[in-house]
Amino acid sequence: MKTTTAPQSQEYRGEVRGRIDWQKTVKSRARKGRLDEPVFVCSEPEEHYNIDENLVLKRLLTVIHEIVTGNLEYALENPEGYDWLSAWTSSIEDPDRSAEPATKVLERVYERNVYLQRIDIEEDAVTERMIESVKRSRSAFYREAAELLSRYRQLMRHELDTEEAREILNHTLIAPEKAEELFELYWVFSVLNEFDSARYRVLADWRDRPSAVAEWEQDGSRYVLSHNSTGEALTFRERIEGETIKPDGYLYRLSKVLEEWSSLSEELFGREQSDSLWGGRPDIVLERFEQDGDREWMLDDVLIGEVKYTQDVQYAASGLRELLEYMAFVRHADENGEYVEETEHILESVAVRGLLFTDDLDHETGETSDSIRLVEYPDSPDL
Question: How many domains are there within the chain?
Fold first, then answer.
């Protein structure tokens, strides 16, 4: 490991270590008032490890160590099915040591190597200028460390082109933390599979509309499918209109509770609360738009899907109630805010249809109505 040396002065009594600095020795004895006292100031070389090359190397090893011991911990403890980790789990033949996997070598070197321990890296101590400097090092070892650390930082800044992104995604599995979220996505793509023209939006324009999974046109209609969202032209929020309720009834008193709750929460806790009576975000929203006489896209009808990852009938029944509420209360998100379904057609699936997606229920279910359909895994939505 590369180091630098610098002279370090040290005062000794009755002994000499290194080269005597006579000028400092005389000054030291003069200060003490005894020129014949056996005091010597010696200059000894001291090694310094905190040079650019070693700081870059230590930072890179720290990043790798955190990834291996943190992000990859489960995969390394359960290597079956993770063939791409074989380089870390396979034993390395070392004539001076018994064979051990690369993970153990990394742990031993990073945590026990006395030279690495002497390198002190503070957070953000390794600058881009230092990395560029080390890339020009005479040592190929340090040059590679600098290239890898630079590459890692570029990836963390999302600086990659289309081919690089495709290469990474071809070797990456991204899964939600919770199984129920994966179950929701299963049904999202089951719905999309019903359409030949569906175009995904997972990587496109995500900053503007992060919940829009896909958007496409088919048979003269425009479709937008969203996950865990209120959709593009909809709102799922219900307020109490003061002028439409009786001055002393349940809704009147409830409106007073919500107003006071919102006000006191702001005063006591500094948290603003919504005074809406009801609100939510369906798991799946599929909107279909038709063009009007001015060639503007206008919402024509909606499919709402509620997903319950369960085999319990009671929990599935609670999902059914949520679905019915979404279907009954969904409004247009324009200034008028009218209900999508007309009063005479509430829950009749004229403009708003509903699907309840569940696991294979441990119960014999009855026939579904025209307005609501129950789809159990692994049945098809059959849209």
Answer: 4
